[in-house]
């Protein structure tokens, strides 16, 4: 056996040695056989990741990758944050209010809801583009669409042009969100994957802070630039994505699924092992990804939308992600995201400067607690964090409703201040689950071959709920006042029950180890295939197979060294 082959088998040999030390001497033959059969019961990739004690910031290649994530993948949510905060702030900008003839109720709802409507119409095409073009090029293309939408919004000279611009912005955002969240999960080192996935949503507040600060600075401007400047600045996040994505590698899982194994292995080696092509972790990751994809393909040669409901496991995944889409929008967050100014009107806060200050302060507070939670909550169990989130929101929204009712009945200023306090308490309660964990959880919930479709289903339910919210909320606030909040209290109680009984636990395992979360037979077969492939010294047919003329091998070496 060559030195390379000896190196390749060391992963399995180490696990066998550990298991053999546990074997009881009275049953040597049976126990040794059982030990080898259960080599992968502890999941090799997770074990190797746990052994890596070097922090990411001491790894130059990985450090560069994570820095690139911020203006590209993680930065995608800055666009969403900017949009919602800008629409909040513009309602307290006199020049905008005058230019569009003081839109309220239905018209205001339509202006906000067009963003969600564009996203809903685009969603059926998102998996086709994301799986067809790859994650990286989908982000670039969708960002170009959003730049066009922001430019049209800035130059809008009537109501129709403004809402069509918002529709175009909405068309672009789901492509970027699905591709970016998938790429973060598929490209990150397993040790930091959950934290980076959690940071994805916290960047929402960076865009929101910029928009809130901008509208605070322009609300006194008498010219139309008071609202056109914030609209123009919406170009910046998408422009950053277009520029920096050219320096970002593609998803190794997508490359392997396209028969480009050498490129995938080189990317894994460069970023997960600092260019070490003999790394045991990289080989184990590659084999695990390759064998998992093979099993997924053997189960279904092609996956259509009907196949998302073809098995009990897939049906449960779809149910959980669909409800999660509703939960992230129907938990009351739409009220503070788009209609804070109208809520403050209802509790006696009518000064535009005060409204913009509350908007900016709440946004900054949201960014602070969302970032802290993103860096910490991913270390805890997902289901427990979601339960904490839903229970906290239920209690806070109940108090918010009672305080609003007391102000409406008696005009009590203490109740008005209590509503503002509940608005600030709402932020960390929401962020601990629905903000910090959502995309981390979705990437873990769905296997690679249906991941884009799964996140698209989440987006579809979330965007439809968002469209309903942004259209109906201003009508409900105007017509029913505090009584409208009762509907949210009832739905939050339902969320608690659903999460308790149906949410699975996904923490502490790699994506491939979670690929067959509900399919026990396929999970056992996966472990056997990976163990066999590593024992025989293989690191995937796609690395050696296509390289008959040496070009693929040379390409792999150059990528790993670059």
Keywords:
mainly alpha, 30 helices, 562 residues, 75% helix
Strand-residue fraction?
A: under 5%
**Mean pLDDT metric:** 81
Structural shape: globular
Q: How do the helices and strands follow one another from N- to C-terminus?
A: HHHHHHHHHHHHHHHHHHHHHHHHHHHHHH
* Number of discrete helical segments: 30
Largest β sheet strand count, sense and barrel closure? none
Q: What's the total number of strands? A: 0
As a whole number of angstroms, the C-alpha radius of gyration is 25 Å
Helix content: over 70%
Low-confidence runs: 1-42, 544-562
Measured between the Cα atoms of the first and last residue, the distance is 30 Å
Question: Which class of secondary structure composition applies to the elements?
Answer: mainly alpha
Written account of the structure:
The protein is mostly helical and 562 residues long. The protein has 30 helices and no strands. It has helices at 3-8, 10-21, 28-37, 44-51, 60-69, 76-90, 94-99, 105-122, 126-133, 135-154, 159-187, 193-202, 204-218, 225-233, 235-244, 252-257, 261-272, 280-299, 312-327, 333-338, 340-346, 352-376, 382-410, 413-435, 438-445, 448-480, 486-502, 520-535, 541-544, 551-561. The chain is globular and about 75 Å long. Residues 1-42 and 544-562 have low confidence and may be disordered.
